[in-house]
Description:
By secondary structure, chain A is mostly helical. Helix content of chain A is 74%, strand content 0%. Residues 137-159 of chain A have low confidence and may be disordered.
Amino acid sequence: MKNPEFVLSTVLAIVITFVIAIWVPGEGTVKVKLAICYAGLVLLFLFGFLILAGIASGKIDISQLLAESGGGASMSRFQLLIFTFVIGLSFFLIVVSTGKFPNPIPTEVLTLLGISATTYGVSKGIQATGGLAGKAGTTAGNGGQGNGGGRDGGQAGGH
Amino acid sequence: MRTLATLAYWEGIILLGGFLGVVLWKLLTGGISLEQLLEGDAQDPNSADGYSTYVSGGRTQLLGATLFVAGYYLLRVIHNPKQFPTLPTELVGALAGSQALYLGGKARALLQGRVQQFFNRRMP
């Protein structure tokens, strides 16, 4: 088994669902809602935590998160990362403060993320058309740059 | 139901904070490289691999615009976390313009040679 921790998390979530559905007193429909909510929360937390622990321990390598096809850091990836974190954090703060899901999601939020993601996409298109992936391949063949730019390029160019 | 809300609250804090913290930590310690963030690639026939790097004004202004808009938005949310803040249209337009400038500069640096080659082949 390649990833036993993910299987264990799923099993744990299913067990919690059954425990709530069978032993917790209350009305049937409420119990079903509670069981699904708790199972979803536990599953999300365990999956998220496993990924977080993998990143922190280095098992999941994110060193090329901002790498560009030709080596070096990508500005389009960097700005997308910043906006994703800012919007995610804002969303969390608002849900915690109001206790409900914001409805509708304002157009400003979608516009910001849209502009940011479009820039990333267009930037990738320009790189591919400009032949930067070829440069990355050449670099990899020569043993790569100081920060492993050649390998980064190969990965980034594939997206 | 109150336990469920508390659980979701702490889960959000741990996961979101954790991901933010790990990425920030790796950015600060060099685990995620920011090398050449402000340098662009341009086609260069004199270079061995056909490309050279240059300090890009487009990237620099985009970094400034991004940090300004992201900081402004986050401060507005922290100031009033009851609703998503409204952004002035001028600010969104400025951000879009900044991104367009960056993309235009990048396209010019990477594609100008190719476009010229294309027209030279068509119209000798």
